[in-house]
Amino acid sequence: MADNTTADDASAIPADQPARGKKRAQAQRAPRLPVHGVLLLDKPAGLSSNDALIRAKRMLNAPKAGHTGTLDPFATGLLPLCFGEATKFSQDLLEADKTYEAVVHLGVKTDTGDTEGAIIAERPVETGLEQIEAALARFRGPISQVPPMHSALKRDGKPLYEYARAGITLEREARDVIIHRLELLDYQAPMLTIRVTCSKGTYIRVLGEDIGDVLGCGAHLNALRRTGVGPLTLDGAMTLEQFEAAGETEQRKAALLPVDGLLQSFPAVQLPDELARRFLHGQRLPLAKEGVAAPEQLGRVRVYRASDAALLGTGLLQEYAILAPERLVSTA
User: Fold this and answer.
1) Do residues 113 and 221 lie in contact, with contact meaning Cβ atoms separated by under 8 Å?
2) What are the DSSP E strand ranges found in 218-275?
3) Are the C-beta atoms of residues 30 and 61 closer than 8 Å to each other?
4) How far apart are CA 174 and CA 314, in angstroms?
5) What is the pTM of this model?
6) Residues pairing with 317 in the sheet
7) How many Å is the Cα radius of gyration of the chain?
8) What share of the chain is helix, strand, coil (3-state, %, to 5)?
9) Which residues are catalytically annotated?
10) What is the mean pLDDT of each run of 10 residues along the chain (332 residues)?
């Protein structure tokens, strides 16, 4: 896992090119126009999350974009990409639970915990379904994981994988994570297929290795596919090829979820025009006193202007039905 990443295209013009050439090239580029929304991308294997973001960003000619937590290059599946105002809410998906389907290759350990590493140990697999179910049961609920050396976690400003590539192994503190669900989908020895729903920061590679260790044969991750991020799923997701084939920029924009596609798990509050204006100016609003219906449950809400259904942002509903602005959007 990694922090939310934003990407800005680097200029293709060398620094030593004459200023006149730079101006000519800049004049030939199409101007970047605001793009707001969320692309549910089905990331292919062999491509980094940041490279996938940059490709989609260029297809939209978007000035601002970010992804919501990386997938390893060998992994596939759901990678929500946020554009424009949607990036203000991408942190919510970083914090959200994730769902994966993984194929664990029993009996073979690699130095990276996945198919991209070198084999470091092989053992016979003499494991039945009863042993597998017992092993999986040990990993349901709160567990501790030691982050792998081949990860983007940083130590002294450098990602751990750079130390690993240099042959250096560093001590890492175990982290507490939660495995909400762990299901056996299939077992055709030596391949074990599982579905995992877990908290943020969970390393499925480490989970696969730990399952192999409990079974006494070792293991590595043969395949990994993310199928869910918070409330979002692969339903309606597009590959980069499908997104490119969708047409020109305006047609591609139509394939994006609206900004509030990230906020559907929160109750909605509808404000009349005057209250909407005050909300956008950062004022706390007494909803009950103003005669505005408020959700029963306190906490985070999505806020709209009732007259045109424009999303204003998110707010915090406090005691006595007081609505406090949280994150505001500038497109309202």
Assistant:
1) yes
2) 219-229, 232-233, 268-271
3) yes
4) 34
5) 0.84
6) 299, 323
7) 23
8) 25, 35, 40
9) 72
10) 35 40 52 88 94 95 88 94 92 90 98 92 96 97 90 79 82 93 97 97 96 97 96 94 91 93 91 96 95 93 95 96 94 54
